[in-house]
């Protein structure tokens, strides 16, 4: 997955997140449905951002960014900030 593809996916996920919030306000889905899907979207976003950071870091040190790989959700979600 190239940087542009990752950024496109990030934008799609953000658009879906906004749509879910609008649907919640409009009463088209329950808060439980919205929260469940938002949690999944946030995990996917975190993985995309992590992959993009990996690719950029590899490029910055002269390595091939195509060797960056998505990390498991539990690894990405448990990073120390």
Topology readout:
Blueprint: H1 3-25, H2 31-60, H3 73-77
Helix pairs in contact: 1-2
Short note summarizing the structure:
With 81 residues, this protein is mainly α.
Write a structural description.
With 81 residues, this protein is an all-alpha fold. The chain is built from 3 helices and no strands. Helix 1 (3-25) runs antiparallel to helix 2. The longest helix has 30 residues, at 31-60. The protein starts with a helix and ends with a helix. The model has no long low-confidence stretch (mean pLDDT 93). It comes from Microbispora bryophytorum subsp. camponoti. This is DUF2630 family protein. Residues 60-81 are annotated as: Disordered.
Cα Rg = 15 Å
- Strand % is under 5%
Name the helix and strand elements from N-terminus to C-terminus, one letter apiece: HHH
Biggest beta-sheet profile: none
Mean pLDDT: 93
What fraction, in percent, of the residue positions are helical? over 70%
How many strands appear in the DSSP assignment?
A: 0
What distance separates the N and C termini?
26 Å
Helix tally?
3
> Could you say which overall geometry the principal axes of the C-alpha atoms support?
elongated
Instruction: Flag low-confidence runs.
Output: none
Q: Strand pairing plus helix content: what structural class?
A: mainly alpha
């Amino acid at each position: 997955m190239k940087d542009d593809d990752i950024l496109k996916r990030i934008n799609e996920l953000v658009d879906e997140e906004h749509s879910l919030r609008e649907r919640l306000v409009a009463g088209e889905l329950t808060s439980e449905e919205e929260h469940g899907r938002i949690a999944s979207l946030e995990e996917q976003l975190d993985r995309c951002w992590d992959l993009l950071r990996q690719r950029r870091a590899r490029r910055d040190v002269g390595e091939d960014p195509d060797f960056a790989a998505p990390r498991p959700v539990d690894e990405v979600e448990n990073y120390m900030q």
